[in-house]
Amino acid sequence: MNSKFFIVTIGAWFIFMILAIINAGIRNNVYKPIVGDLAAHQISTIIFVTLILIVTYLVLRFANLELSNSEALLMGAIWLISTMAFEFIAGHYAFGNSWEKLFADYNILKGRIWCLVLITTLFAPYLTNKLLQR
Q: pLDDT by residue (tens digit) across 78-119?
């Protein structure tokens, strides 16, 4: 592992955060008033999962990183931990969301599928790396 690995890892994560904020803004201002909260949450989750996969592919394709399986999983783990820290710390303290609201997005039994974003964030570098090694 070298400094390029960490620069690419953190740089890609910042791209995800910008896209997540844009995605949330579009969700809240465009289709949430039309389809309601739950459907809007589900739609934006699927959109963001797709964006994570596309950005991961583009970043790994053009960064010319030759990652081992463990490095790809480490990249995903860094993204996952950073995402969850941002979600809870910024979500609560900067955006004023209650802890209950933040944890509600993890309730799959109520149709909240945010966990798909976290799973994708963790495994996208590994899966993309495998795809690029073909």
A: 999 999 999 999 888 988 889 998 888 889 999 999 999 999
27 lies in which domain range? 3-132
Q: Are 36 and 72 in contact (CB under 8 A)?
A: no
Count: domains in the chain: 1
Angle at 107 between CA 14 and CA 115, to 5 degrees: 35
Distance CA 41, CA 48 (A): 10
- Cβ partners under 8 Å of residue 49, min gap 6: 116, 117, 120
Residue whose C-alpha is closest to residue 116's, from 83, 86, 91, 89: 83
The model's pTM is 0.92
